[in-house]
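## Example record

The block below lists the input lines for one assembly entry, exactly as stored, with component labels intact.
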Amino acid sequence: MPENNQISEILKKFNNDRSRLMDILLEIQEKQNFVNEEDIKFLSEKLGVSGGEINETLSFYHFFSDKELGKYNIYLNDSITANMKGRTEVKKAFEEACATPIGNVSEDKQFGLFSTSCIGMNDQEPAAIINNKIFTQLTPYRVRQLVKGMRDGKPIEDLMYENFGDGNNADPDVKAMVFNNIRRKSIILKNDYEPYTFLKGKIRDYSPEQVIKVIEDSNLRGRGGAGFPTGLKWRFGSRTDGAHRVIICNADEGEPGTFKDRVLLTQYPEMVFEGMVIAAFATGADIGLLYLRYEYKYLLKFLNRKLKEMQEQNLLGNNISGIRDFNFSIRIQLGAGAYVCGEESALIESLEGKRGEPRDKPPFPVEKGYLGYPTIINNVETLATAVKIMHHGANWYANFGTKDSLGTKLLSISGDCKLPGIYEVEWGISIKEVLEMCGAEDAQAIQVGGPSGMLIGMKDFDNLDKTTLMRWYKPSGMMVAERFFDRRLSYSDLPTGGSIIIFNNQRDLLGDVVLNFMDFFIEESCGSCSTCRNLPVLMKMKLEKILAGNGVKKDIEDLLSWGKTLKASRCGLGQTAGNPILSSIFNFRHLYERHVQSLKEFDNGFDLEKAVEPYMDFVHRKPMFHHF
Amino acid sequence: MNKKIIATTSLAGCFGCHMSILDIDERILDLIELVEFDKSPIDDIKKFTQPVDIGIIEGGCCNSENIETLKYFRENCNILVSLGECAIMGGLPALRNGIPIEECLREAYLDGPTVQLNTEQIIPAHEELPMILDKVYPCHEIVKIDYFLPGCPPRADLIWNALYALITGNKMELPYEVIKFD
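Predicted structure tokens for the full assembly:
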């Protein structure tokens, strides 16, 4: 085996640690633009695992490649909002300018042009990632300019002619043309936050138990979408024995239409990190990990700088803030492009350098998580909210929101409205109010909670009985029709991780929106459960058949019944992969019925003339059809 | 009880499923007490002579004649059963589904290592021959199929139990042992 110095160097940096395979592969990919078979062999020898095992991880993530990519690699977002804002023309412009169809590397190896799932820029679409830099609000003209610049060999930074975005987007370590678009501030985003004041002072007056008590009293529930009580999660985590305990901040914000965590990490990173340290204090954790989706890599340098500053202020490290034996550090782990890694057990697998396939539960992460240690995984927003609660107390927090959903929620609003962006609202706001707030006039439908709305779902605690667990399992990915616009965002009515996408009356809900969402699930399935691997494809085909005019009534019934079968999948992604179709049948059944043939019982759309065409053409035979 | 009328056919299949029907051994004597065969290769009746209760289809559809026959069955049979892997999934013939039809024909008639006598390089295309489909279709993608009996071939016991239940109107008893997918 020939020695590969470059890779040896990288391996050395990570102590030949197999659990750091993600970082190892990321660095190799970064250095040489691909990880090929030779590299896999070399890695397998050095790490002492089979080549298949390396390949398992390598092949799982979108941003790894075993073939050489281009000098410039363009990942064009293909979310529904991008389509609504003119992605088709932008894609065409890229294809023409780069001289390659999407999904390929151009012949001159200059450009790799790929589609990618939602990159968290829904309020500034169409957007693309080019060599780790984000380009937003693209137009065909801008695309031609960009590609010309790249052809002239300019570094990608020099092609960002626009001003940098607002706030920290203009920070020297970020320099992104991304905008925060914060439209409404309430108790979390308010300008009253002084970084680390709780950590530097008040925390010394609390015992870990008291911190958990405050969070419990506040009734704070997970903000990723599933709404599991945070205090309870911390309590369970703190109770489980282990040589280490782990706090993970889940910043793998992949639900199409969600971008609130991106804004929190850009503008309020101190609050998020302070939340992690408070959680560590409460639960006795010493290992901290922030799992940052690859799409947000442009924030990495900036976030690492923040961590360094914390270390310098003794807010990370040993005896934090002068509290004896309170040792905690935070490392940022980059993902490599996989929606399912937002599911907490898949995220842990990924952190350990494996494929992001959800684990069987129990055991739950609080019992046996990262490297087998008790692990508490919280959403970015949950951790930020915990800081505010510790500042002001549980009683103060109870002044906001509704009885069963206390406090506020960050909404990521995009689609057909005048003012897309981040809105912090109190729970209990009605859809109607949301529409007024963001200036949406002729809304036909609202997608609440993204295509699935519920990646993190029925899980978390073995200790709770089944009925209690079922209460947390409420798929919220819901396409809401106008007659339901009085419904309110809350855990008891319309729970949401915060994604709100608005479709106006001109949009083709089934042909554009639902099919796009189905494509997303088909692309992002990890493939482990046959239900989630197969049914979304079949459901999409069935919907296409209906749209082609070959549908019959039974097709609608089939879709509903297959949706039930999907619930047998292991994780929330699979369980909710049928939601775009199910919730649109539920709320927009007339759109389906309009297409199906009422008189026919059976029609599979088979067209004999078309089916024999290739053969007839090849043998130069004239078609002759008896009509049977 | 009036005898039930049965019809069978083999489309793009190997007749293995029909052999499996014969594999019900001495029960075939019970069977002829219960049923009468109409159009079937077993009695070589070519055209339906009466309305049929149960039609049994072996094989998927690879050409226009298969399509015609299958539709003819659907029109004349009350219940239609897909029998075996090929009828249900396309089976072995469907191995060609990933390969363009031109390539298949070239390999079969011109370039294949066993093709030696086709000196005139003829690919059959006479107008009386069935037209070949772009791929092999399972039967339920062409017409409505009521029952699916899996296997390659389905076991005689499976065929017997299912047929017996359909004929007598009793509940189908298909224990795990009789259902095999290969």
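Chain A is about 40% helix and 10% strand. The domain at 408-595 of chain A is CATH 3.10.20.600 (Ubiquitin-like (UB roll)).
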